[in-house]
Amino acid sequence: MRCGADILLNGLSRSIDGEGKCVICGTTTRLKMSEGRIQELDPETALLHVVEIPKEPGKIGIECEATHLFDTEKCLLTWQRIYAGRPGRVFRPREYLDHITRGGEARVAFRAS
Predict the structure, then answer these.
(1) Is the pLDDT of residue 103 over 60?
(2) Pairing of strands 28-34, 16-21
(3) Which domains, from first to last, does the chain contain?
(4) Taking Cα atoms as reference points, which of 98, 103, 93 lies closest to residue 6?
């Protein structure tokens, strides 16, 4: 997996047990997905910071280097104070799935940083 969003996007097309470590405190966030939906999320307080880059109409790219899964808002805010990259958006994981699948299909292309 390349970044926090990658776990969610892989879960759109197959059942997956994924995890990501918070870049601030190292806590593991676990996701279990099937049928394109999150079945389990631990901790429930997890947040995703994602940097999206517009592509062709209806498509976006993800800048993986700046896209992270955080276990708490406190860790997200700590990271944002030191982050100097492109502006991103913050989503709860379930909200991100709704955002990224408008029209019923994922509209993402990853960008290596």
Answers:
(1) no
(2) antiparallel
(3) 4-111 (3.30.450.410)
(4) 93
* Token pair belonging to 66: 């700046």
What values do phi and psi take at 9, rounded to 5? -70, -35
As a whole number of Å, the end-to-end CA separation of the chain is: 14
C-alpha 45 chain-centroid distance: 13
The one-letter amino acid code at 9 reads L
Strand order in the sheet with 68-70: 68-70, 47-50, 89-91
Q: Per-residue pLDDT tens for 36-95?
A: 889 999 999 999 999 988 887 777 888 888 999 999 999 999 999 999 999 999 999 999
Single-letter code of the amino acid located at 7? I
Q: How far apart are the C-alpha atoms of 72 and 86, rounded to whole Å?
A: 21
Residue with tokens 């926090």: 4
Residue 28 corresponds to which amino acid? T
> Where would I find the beta strands (DSSP E) of the chain?
16-21, 28-34, 37-42, 47-50, 52-54, 60-63, 68-70, 89-91, 108-111
CA quadruple 39, 41, 44, 50: dihedral sign: negative
